[in-house]
Specification:
alpha/beta; single chain; 27% helix
């Protein structure tokens, strides 16, 4: 495999290597694309920092579509270093689930920049939304809307109606050459309606998944179920409607009512029904370096091992529209390459070396390299 200027240009057994190109001997290792954490709070919910590092939930407004996770990421959080130990080179960072509409997500490399901007793959990937217990608990405690599941759905529905009206007025004004009074939240929701941004729907329980589908069909946006730990009950519906699931976290307790039916085997059931699946740690709920461990546990509970590797690579890339950059060792994609000592689904295997856009950022012997080199 040849990587030039950070991009894979050739893969095969007869690749011509230009003079002067450094050669990495991967004999005896498994060579895989960097893994993708499709739902993380990396850098916005810093481990062990308490309120000072908790910038993932803006709980003063239930409609946070104008908020951006990018504006709160601290790349010095230890989770970024930990990600390399687990072969994770891409993370989609999302706001939390306190609000019915939490804000915009961002796809980033997990290492390399002096600032987070130098690690960005795509500045806007999706808008995060939450159904279920979290938003109704947060706002119910305030005696404010939404305090129930039906209130959460109404907040989302009202916001999209306003976005439809905003888009119509915007388009009319532009057609007449008149200025448009901008609204950042409604702009983001209009981008969801236009198909520019994905709707990332936090939902665990099957009845909340049904509500998510109802809303998506009412307004015609493209939805991805995030968590879906009880989604096996409606796996056939998700498969029929081609709605993917970013499943997890798995190594957690049943900490609230809506996850009482959480079961690692549900991931295998979803995949067997034809649902495209990815895996998430929901970092820091589960430390990000255990992303592959969760996939291993799912294989133990019936998930096909090839699907498990796809759920860490090509699937999350395709689900979130990042497959033009990451997810595979294919010419034209970023040179994000990880050398494993053996099968990564074997818990005795470890990461030996990690390359992001062709630059070595971690080795088992040398540790994590210093930041500072720009990624072009």
């Amino acid at each position: 495999m040849l990587v030039v200027d950070g991009v894979i240009t050739a893969v095969g057994t007869d690749v011509d290597i230009p003079d002067g190109v450094p050669v990495v001997d991967a004999t005896g290792t498994w060579v895989l694309p960097g893994f993708i954490e499709a739902h993380a709070h990396l850098g916005v919910h810093e481990e062990g920092e308490g309120w000072a590092g908790a910038d993932f939930n803006e709980t003063t407004d239930p409609v946070g579509a104008g908020l951006r996770a990018l504006d709160a990421i601290n790349i010095e959080e230890e989770g970024f270093r930990d990600s390399l130990l687990g072969g994770v080179t891409t993370a989609v960072v999302k706001p939390g689930s306190a609000n019915p509409i939490g804000g915009q997500t961002v796809a980033i490399k997990t290492w390399g920049g002096r600032t987070v901007d130098e690690q960005v793959i795509r500045e806007r990937v999706s808008v995060k939304s939450a159904l279920g217990e979290n938003p109704k608990r947060v706002y119910g405690d305030k005696k404010a809307l939404p305090a129930t599941r039906l209130g959460v759905a109404k907040v989302i529905r009202d916001a999209f109606v306003k976005a439809q009206n905003y888009a119509a007025k915007r388009d009319h004004a532009l057609a007449e050459g008149k200025p448009v009074e901008r609204d950042l939240a409604l702009e983001a929701l209009a981008a969801v309606l236009d198909g520019e941004l994905i709707w990332d729907q936090h939902t665990h329980r099957h009845d909340d998944i049904a509500t998510a589908i109802r809303l998506a069909e009412e307004f015609g946006y493209r939805m991805v179920v995030n968590h879906g730990t009880d989604g096996a009950r409606v796996a056939d519906i998700l498969a029929e409607k081609d709605i993917p699931v970013i499943f997890g976290p798995m190594i957690v307790s049943r900490s609230k009512v809506e996850v009482r039916d959480r079961d690692v085997a549900n991931l295998a059931r979803l995949a067997a029904a034809g649902v495209r699946v990815a895996v998430t740690t929901d970092h820091p709920v589960v430390p990000i370096e255990y992303l592959v461990l969760q996939a291993s546990l799912a294989v133990k509970e019936g998930l096909d091992r090839d699907v498990a590797l796809q759920a860490l690579t090509v699937n999350p890339a395709a689900i979130l529209g990042l497959d033009d950059r990451v997810g595979a060792l294919t010419p034209g994609l970023d040179g994000d390459v990880v050398l494993w000592s053996g099968d990564p689904l074997d818990t005795f295997t470890h990461v030996q070396r990690v390359f992001i856009t062709g630059t070595e950022v971690y080795s088992r012997d040398g540790g994590v390299r210093e930041r500072g080199e720009r990624f072009e």
